[in-house]
Amino acid sequence: MKKDISQVVIKRMPRYYRYLRYLMDEGKERISSAELSDLMNVTASQIRQDLNNFGGFGQQGYGYNVKHLHDEIGKILGLDKTHNLIIIGGGNLGRALATTDAFSKHNFYMTAIFDCNEKLKGTKVGDIVIRTMDELDSYYAKNRVDMAVLTIPAEHAQEVADRLVKLGVKAIWNFAQLDLEVPDDVVVQNVHLSDSLMRLSLNMLQKENKVNTGNGKRNRE
Amino acid sequence: MKKDISQVVIKRMPRYYRYLRYLMDEGKERISSAELSDLMNVTASQIRQDLNNFGGFGQQGYGYNVKHLHDEIGKILGLDKTHNLIIIGGGNLGRALATTDAFSKHNFYMTAIFDCNEKLKGTKVGDIVIRTMDELDSYYAKNRVDMAVLTIPAEHAQEVADRLVKLGVKAIWNFAQLDLEVPDDVVVQNVHLSDSLMRLSLNMLQKENKVNTGNGKRNRE
Hints:
2 copies of one chain form a homodimer.
Chain A: H1 7-25, E1 30-31, H2 33-40, H3 44-52, E2 64-65, H4 66-76, E3 83-88, H5 92-98, H6 101-104, E4 108-115, E5 124-125, E6 128-132, H7 136-142, E7 147-150, H8 154-167, E8 171-174, E9 187-190, H9 193-208
């Protein structure tokens, strides 16, 4: 449990969680590693190896107990605890994230929005009042903040990230189209939307440029 | 040029493009592979290998011509052509994507929004009029559509994807929290926001659970 777990494995964990949730909703109580492997298009041995990073949950001959595995992976992902997130950037993307139900289902709560535009001060997005950036420090001093979401233009992102880090924020969900520089004890998860769109374009071009190879599973990640 | 290029390489290409754009904006004309490597935190040999997948652009001893490499990678990514995108789902996320300037800068244009809610019909998001889903086929018949963006709940995503594929859409940018099943000649690029947030949570937990290892570069992807 002490060793570094690779980002490739970490990337797969939420997907396992998602599929187990789906199986639970379908009323499935047990699943063999072969079935799970087939459903997720990952080898059974890959699943075992991935789970072994976190102690392993296999039950030879009986497969996995769906609810148990779901709950254990939930704990690994930290979903058994609530997370309070503040959004920096009250533009369209920030507002969209603030009003997405999907996150609170997993115990992630958007609790505040900050924007540098004084005109937005006091306006509401759902139940959340938009605050100005000069209120950030006093808000942080009085409220629990577990993560910050950056939905601001790239040119201000590093400066705001520095300010958040100084306040004590340890986790940043970064939508700014920029790789942030942060200290070792801070984690950043990037959602670079333009990069994603360019990958779609490149993959489309690659597909057009060749005869069908029968390899159509790329979309599963 | 005929072989399959790995998704790991494809993932890095937009990042190269982003850094080269930044260098261009800074007025930089040439860059050695060592400098580029240092800036991007990728080895010089990795950069060469990645670019070699597309024919290679190295100039031994002189490094890279920034604008030339930027433009060539832009062509690889298909950014020299315009792409028209339709958005399925006129909720907050769909609206946010429709009004994001960053995409049109790279020749991706959001040209229409469709929603199943009849009440939204005719309302505008920026310059785009929201249409209902029953207008999709006739719109598709009359307009060029290069990609579709799915910003609808997971439970309707597969059904809508099937309809898009039947119409002839070859590229789907999928924000629904679901892995779509599509034919071999269709590409899907997923943006699973909840998965991304869970990865942030897991990485934060991993970081908390261990002494600092000095490995603080994980955020660069």
